[in-house]
Amino acid sequence: MKIYLVLFSFLLSSCSLFKNKNQPSTELATTKANYKYIDVQGELPMHRNVLFEESKHKLSTMIKLIDPDKKENEVMEKIISVSEVGSIKNRKTKRNILRPNISQFTTWLEGKRYFSQIKVLSKSRELIINLESPEAKWTGESKVSLPRSLSMYCFYTQIAECLKFSNVLFELKKNPNSSMKFGIIWESYPYMTEQWENFPAEAVTAARVVYDGDAENGDSKYNVEFNGQVAYFHFDKKFELRKFLWVAQGISILR
């Protein structure tokens, strides 16, 4: 199987920005942050690095879940996702978006490596999925069509940047009775069915985001609804992710 290599170099000593002239809150930046990842099995350190390459119009994220009990801080799970800066148009408006390009997911289950790569073909509206694992059902290449009913898609691990850059967060806060539909591409497909409860084995899910007011500390709260479940996102004043809660799966990500 031919696996496309993602060239991902983190130049975290510098910071580059892509600015929307009308809304400075949609800036993209190179950042590095540490979070606490909490689920039903316990708590783990999570490193989240974001690289924005302005000259290439690309945003890359790398997420690592670390095993703190190992001497060398062994990586238990790693996700690399790359999106391109683009735009979508309708009859009245033009919206900047992050267009998912490629992702690579690696995890270890019972000491065995499970790998998934998703390549997004925007023109044909397809996902090319390559799997490598010890199990025959999770090997080889497959294709999944993107629903034509949705115009904007986000990688699951890039939802925060995706909604920020597209100006959706600002628009919903300005019009709190409105909502925005988009599609979520799950980098961990199909292995998340082994990790999450009552979750369908699908690579793409239709979702809806709404503004849910402000927290006592001034953070802006947004609810992302999908498959009868809700994920709660809390953003600081710069629309940087501070907190993520997915109650149905018992997952919390705290900065």
Keywords:
single chain; 255 residues; mainly beta; 15-stranded mixed sheet; 7% helix; globular; disordered N terminus
Task: Sum this structure up briefly.
The chain is mainly β and 255 residues long.
Q: What does this 3D model show about the protein?
A:
This protein has helices at 159-165, 168-174, 192-195, and strands at 31-39, 42-53, 58-66, 75-89, 94-109, 112-121, 126-132, 140-145, 153-155, 179-185, 204-214, 220-226, 229-235, 241-246, 251-254. It has 255 residues and is mainly beta. The protein has one domain (24-254). The N and C termini lie far apart (38 Å). The relative contact order is 0.14.
Helix percent reads under 10%
| SSE ordering | EEEEEEEEEHHEHEEEEE
Q: For the CA atoms, what is the radius of gyration?
A: 18 Å
Q: Supply the number of structural domains.
A: 1
The chain-level structural class is mainly beta
Main sheet strand line-up: 8-7-6-5-4-3-2-1-15-14-13-12-11-10-9
Strand content: over 45%
General form: globular
Query: What's the story with the biggest beta sheet?
Result: 15 strands, mixed
Summarize the SSE layout with pairings.
Blueprint: E1 31-39, E2 42-53, E3 58-66, E4 75-89, E5 94-109, E6 112-121, E7 126-132, E8 140-145, E9 153-155, H1 159-165, H2 168-174, E10 179-185, H3 192-195, E11 204-214, E12 220-226, E13 229-235, E14 241-246, E15 251-254
Parallel strand pairs: 9-10
Antiparallel strand pairs: 1-2, 1-15, 2-3, 3-4, 4-5, 5-6, 6-7, 7-8, 10-11, 11-12, 12-13, 13-14, 14-15
